[in-house]
Design brief:
9 helices; 2 domains; binds zinc ion; 315 residues
Length: 315
């Protein structure tokens, strides 16, 4: 019997609310070719879908043997049906997206098989495949950017929530009714409302005279030992430890990997977070030690793209 030749490379997308990347990735997770551009969210759904097609066609013209395509996208979405479920971050002045059969649409235009995955799940799969969580059967990632994305590998497999949904642990409420912590989901006091890079900056800014500081500026000040910036990171490490305690008792990861743009500031909070977390988990370290290793992504901002490729190779 003739065996089907294994695929050597696939096309992958990482679709977010601000940027879209398309890339060609080989079976070892190496990115061979990549285009990264601002996503045309303001022009509406059809424009963005056309943008995806254009990027894909450019790459497929150079790599015509590719058969499979993986899309890592902001959610919510149904990965099995290949449908976007009115993604929160894609709404614009042109309106919301509603349900979009994105894999069907792209499959028709690109003439390839197309798969869909939540971007945080894709990042988790990438870290488990070739990144910081390689070799761990139980792992978690936190993507620290405009939001707080989470992904979990449990017993070697990606963990899903019910109804094909993704476990949105960034919206576990830490302080109910905390007016100082409004979350994009409409509630107050979610983990995301303290721990995303954007939330960190929003909470830290009142300590300074300059209302325009971005997370990077505050990190720079903290590295110069500015006491206001150091205090902001201390508060952040305190809250991060509370969130990680909750994740540890629910998911018991052996390793937690920080990724996303704000993970660049990990050196400013990781040690203090570890100390705080060790205290919160002290009693739980006697039987089964729930204290996870805290690590930083080794995939830069490529985890979504690599994870999309993982799905195209393996689903
Ligand atoms: Zn929330």
């Amino acid at each position: 019997m003739k065996q089907k030749a294994p695929q050597t490379k696939v096309l992958s997308y990482d679709l977010g609310g601000t940027k879209v990347a398309a890339g060609v990735v080989n079976s070892r997770g190496k990115i061979l070719d990549e285009i990264r551009v601002p996503v045309e969210i303001e022009k509406g759904k059809t424009a963005v879908l056309n943008q995806l097609c254009d990027l894909g066609q450019q790459l497929l013209a150079k790599h015509p043997t590719i058969k499979s395509v993986g899309i890592a996208s902001a959610g919510p979405l149904d990965p099995y049906k290949g449908v976007l479920l009115d993604p929160t971050n894609f709404a614009s002045s042109k309106g919301t997206w509603g349900k979009v059969e994105i894999t069907k649409i792209l499959a028709k235009k690109l003439k390839r098989t197309v798969y869909l995955e939540n971007d945080a799940a894709a990042a988790m799969l990438a870290e488990h495949w070739i990144g910081a969580a390689k070799g761990y059967d139980n792992a978690m990632i936190l993507t620290l950017g405009t939001g707080l994305g989470t992904g979990v590998i449990s017993d070697g497999k990606l963990l899903r929530a019910g109804r094909h949904l993704h476990p949105e642990a960034g919206h576990l409420i830490i302080h109910n009714d905390d007016q100082s912590a409004p979350c994009g989901c409409g509630n107050l006091g979610c983990a995301e409302a303290y721990l995303s890079g954007r939330s960190f900056a929003r909470r830290a800014r009142p300590r300074f005279a300059n209302p325009n500081l971005v997370p990077k500026d505050i990190a720079e000040l903290a590295r110069k030992r500015d006491p206001r910036a150091v205090a902001a990171f201390d508060e952040y490490a305190h809250l991060m430890a509370i969130a990680l305690h909750n994740y540890a008792v629910i998911y018991s990861p052996e390793i937690v990997v920080f990724t996303g743009s704000f993970a660049e500031a990990s050196d400013l909070f990781i040690d203090e977070t570890q100390k705080n977390l060790e205290k919160l988990l002290a009693r739980r370290r006697v039987g089964v030690d729930l204290m996870p290793k805290l690590a930083v992504s080794t995939l830069d901002n490529k985890a979504g793209l690599v994870g999309g490729a993982y799905v195209a190779f393996n689903r």
